[in-house]
Amino acid sequence: MGSMHAGKLGSSKRLRQLLRTLADRRWHTTLEIQSAINSCAVHSDISALRRNGIFINSRPQGKRWEYKLADSFNLVRCLEEHGISVEGFLNG
Q1: Statement: residue 83 has pLDDT above 80
Q2: For helices 13-22 and 30-37, what crossing angle results, to 10°?
Q3: Out of 15, 49, 61, 91, which could bridge 54 as a Cys pair, Cβ 3.0 to 4.6 Å?
Q4: Cα–Cα separations (whole angstroms), residue 42 to 14, 49, 57, 59, 92
């Protein structure tokens, strides 16, 4: 069986949008994320960010899940590794 293909942070606008949504380090529900980035595959997008080295916390809240960025230092390091400037990331 093959391994899962994860989008690259440097070339995926959707993953960068998701990361910007999580950058405030607050908890976000799946529905909030779906609305913010127009994606029906939030769990897959979260998994792709994790495969790109981003640390994301998750927790169940009843029948739904919530996600938040775990570590701002990790975010900066991963952006640099993917050739994305912090200023460029913050400005969209």
Answers
A1: yes
A2: 130
A3: 49
A4: 10, 11, 14, 14, 20
Q: What is the mean pLDDT of residues 69-75?
A: 85
* Residue 33 pLDDT greater than 90, yes or no: yes
- What domains sit in the chain, N to C, each tagged with a CATH number? 13-90 (1.10.10.10)
Torsion of CA 53, 15, 5, 28, to 10 degrees: 80
Residue scoring higher pLDDT (77 or 56): 56
Q: Which residue has the higher pLDDT, 81 or 59?
A: 59
Residue matched to tokens 């609305």: 35
Residue 67 backbone dihedrals phi, psi, to 5 degrees: -135, 150
SS (H, E, C) 2-54: CCCCCCCCCCCHHHHHHHHHHCCCCCEEHHHHHHHHCCCCHHHHHHHHHHCCC
